[in-house]
Design a protein that fits this description.
The complex is a heterodimer of chains A (153) and B (501).
Chain A lengths: L5 H21 L5 E2 L2 E2 L3 H23 L13 H35 L7 H22 L13
Antiparallel strand pairs in A: 1-2
Helix pairs in contact in A: 1-2, 3-4
Chain B lengths: L1 H13 L2 H18 L6 H8 L8 H26 L8 H12 L3 H35 L3 H19 L3 H15 L2 E2 L6 E2 L13 H19 L18 H23 L5 H15 L12 H16 L1 H7 L5 H12 L7 H5 L1 H22 L3 H7 L4 H20 L2 H19 L4 H24 L6 H4 L1 H33 L1
Antiparallel strand pairs in B: 1-2
Helix pairs in contact in B: 1-16, 2-3, 2-4, 2-16, 3-4, 3-9, 4-5, 4-6, 4-14, 4-16, 5-6, 5-12, 6-10, 6-12, 6-13, 6-16, 7-8, 7-20, 7-22, 8-20, 9-18, 9-19, 9-20, 10-11, 10-12, 11-12, 14-20, 18-19
Classes of the chains: A mainly alpha (153), B mainly alpha (501).
């Protein structure tokens, strides 16, 4: 396996899985006839095509003569966890704690993903952004979202 | 005199105080966001889109267009001063622009870029205005078969021009088409692939996908790399180019404009290819070709003119045919749909004020851009000193509020998190994201046109090849594919030969 292009092989397998997934799921929907096809027709064939493309990609990766450059699979777990975690938590607290606190939480959490984090300026930015967003989006543009936590309302 | 009448409609729509204000606001905000290192027009538009929800459609589109070229303009400022391209189309500007800045000629580079952009933008808009009516006429002749073939051509164009690996790009298009099908099937009312989530019944919002990919995924990538960029100058001494600079820049800008205007109209074309092509052309034809790469003024004028001309003319297929030729245009289509306007040839007749108003506003916006931005360049320079560790949480906040505001739905925020991770995985596997986004927009449309084609022909798909217009479009698509495949095959064979030696 040393000379295999792992990146493309993994990519190909991913496409096969996605394509097959759609094709299988599409079978739950009416297929119809060619002259009047149903909701299952188009996704089914697209899924087949996608799986086929994935197969080609995986095969060409197996037959390829060049290997990967090293380190393609590295993912910076810290920034990923901070940013995505921040987003998910933001979604969870938004309607519960209100926009003001949620923005602060999102800024602080996602900032953990940066390697040159400095707290004072980050906290200042969080406060500024939270106040600004409430002013612009809620009072200015009329976005329907609570500003303050549920207990204070 | 139809043409003049149309423009009159346009200017009367664009010159209202409110719309002038929105154009101005768009240009300013676009520049503001675009000037930030690593943020291009795509991210700028997706972030600022929510601001336009409350506006009436004409104002919203005028503002978005302003954001678009404002962001593009801001991107070239960053390219020249920090050597960080905001997006692909200003990569080339970095080469000579940054060199010029380091030689103390930052002001010249900035003003040449601005004037070349203004000139090219005006010409590009003129091309758009001239081509709009005849192309719309043509588009009305299109039946479902032609529309389907046109979309095939558009997707092939996008693939051919963007990706290094054709196979991966096609895979992304098909993935995008499939994801676009999630939600209620318009024809049968069946809800597809919703995993039982009622929030998915209306499909996945295009803006969510765009913001996840071009906002969050981008941030994730940036956080992995080292983002140490240095500003070359704190102050811009003089904006005035010397006489010899002007003499050299003018022909280069002209060449760039023509090339950009042509490339922008093509499906899959757009600002990025145009700027690369213009730079390549300068290397071939310029009398100072040897200086290119070392701070030659042509290296700024030509690509900047080209990318702006292309940015304007890429509105042609979008406005007349409803076909997005690149991701920015896909965003524009998404924005139109949010305002309940179905993009396509009928826009010109049903919404003439919107159509011509948008076109007229492009001239106005381009002018505003230069009048406002050149004097304000000092302010933009200050903005460049904001460190990324402060910037990215702010971007994230705007994106998330934007995502939430589409349907005031928290589920969309979780969806965005999911798509951001998907985007990161795809990027790690070196899949291009843009074909996916285009496929996503076109998925339901292609299905519908394909279905109608087959209904009309009683299940005979060969009409796609027997109707002359449709056949022409498919042949064009095929020719495009071939044009890319053949040199690829050739170089592969060459490599094979070399390795045998």
């Amino acid at each position: 396996m040393a000379r295999v292009q792992r990146r493309d092989f993994v990519g190909g397998v991913l496409l096969i899985l996605v394509g097959a997934g759609f094709a299988i799921a599409a079978q739950r929907y009416p297929f119809g006839s060619l002259a009047r096809f149903g909701p299952g027709f188009f996704p089914f064939w697209l899924g087949i095509v996608l799986a086929g493309l994935g197969g080609l990609l995986a095969a060409s990766a197996l037959l390829g003569r060049e290997g990967d450059e090293p380190g393609f699979a590295t993912i910076d777990a810290r920034s990923l966890a901070a940013v995505i975690g921040g987003v998910v938590v933001f979604g969870f607290v938004l309607t519960r704690l209100g926009l003001l606190l949620s923005v602060v939480i999102l800024v602080l959490m996602s900032s953990l993903g940066s390697r040159d984090l400095r707290w004072p300026s980050t906290i200042a930015a969080a406060a500024l952004l939270a106040a600004g967003c409430c002013a612009v989006f809620v009072y200015g543009l009329g976005l329907t979202v609570p500003v303050l936590p549920a207990v204070l309302r | 005199m139809q043409f003049v009448d149309n423009l009159a409609i346009g200017f009367s729509a664009a010159l209202t105080l409110a719309n002038l204000a929105y154009a101005l606001l768009g240009c300013l905000l676009g520049t503001l966001i675009g000037v930030l290192p690593g943020i291009g027009p795509l991210a700028a538009i997706s972030m600022l889109l929510p601001l336009t929800y409350a506006l009436e459609p004409t104002s919203a589109l005028i503002m978005l267009a302003g954001i678009y070229y404002g962001a593009q303009y801001g991107g070239s400022t960053t390219a020249i001063l920090v050597n960080v391209p905001g997006e692909v189309s200003s990569v080339v500007t970095c080469l000579d622009g940054y060199r010029m800045a380091r030689q103390g000629r930052a002001g010249t580079a900035l003003s040449v870029a601005a004037v070349a952009s203004l000139f090219a933008g005006c010409i590009g808009t003129l091309v758009l205005a001239i081509l709009a009516a005849p192309l719309t006429e043509l588009a009305f002749k299109f039946g479902p078969a032609e529309n389907f073939s046109l979309m095939v051509l558009g997707l092939v164009g996008a693939i051919v021009f963007t990706a290094d690996s054709l196979l991966k790009a096609v895979g992304m298009v098909v993935t995008g088409l499939l994801l676009g099908l999630v939600g209620t099937d318009v024809n049968s009312g069946v809800i597809r692939f919703s995993f039982g989530l009622p929030e998915l019944a209306d499909g996945i919002g295009f803006i969510i996908v765009a913001m996840s990919f071009f906002g969050i995924t981008e941030i994730l990538q940036n956080l992995e790399g080292n983002r140490d960029h240095k500003l070359v100058t704190d102050s811009i001494p003089s904006l005035w180019p010397t006489r010899s600079d002007v003499r050299r820049a003018v022909p280069a800008a002209l060449r760039g404009t023509v090339l950009g205007a042509v490339l922008g109209v093509l499906p899959g074309g757009g600002a990025a290819i145009a700027s690369f092509a213009a730079y390549a052309l300068e290397k071939k034809v310029s009398r100072h070709a040897a200086e290119l790469g070392g701070g030659a003024v042509e290296g700024v004028a030509a690509p900047e003119a080209a990318n702006n001309a292309a940015a304007q003319t890429s509105f042609v297929p979008m406005l007349t045919l409803g076909l997005p030729s690149n991701a920015v245009m896909a965003l524009m289509i998404g924005a139109m749909m949010i305002h309940n306007i179905q993009p396509g040839p009928q826009v010109m007749t049903t919404n003439p004020t919107l159509f011509w108003g948008l076109i007229a506003s492009m001239w106005i916006g381009n002018l505003m851009l230069i009048v406002l931005n050149l004097p304000m360049v000092g302010l933009w320079v200050k903005l460049l000193t904001v460190p990324y560790r402060i910037l990215f949480p702010a971007i994230l906040v705007f994106c998330m509020i934007g995502v939430y505001s589409i349907n005031t739905s928290v589920v969309d925020i979780y969806l965005a998190a999911g798509f951001a991770v998907l985007g990161l995985i795809l990027v790690k596997l070196q899949f291009p994201l843009m074909p996916l986004v285009l496929g996503f927009v076109l998925g339901p449309l292609m299905e519908e046109h394909f279905r109608r084609t087959l209904v009309l022909s009683h299940g005979d798909a060969s009409v796609l090849f027997s109707r002359p217009l449709s056949l022409t479009l498919l042949l064009l698509a095929f020719a495009l594919l071939l044009a890319v495949l053949v040199p690829a095959l050739r170089s592969k064979r060459q490599r094979a030969f070399q390795s045998q030696l």
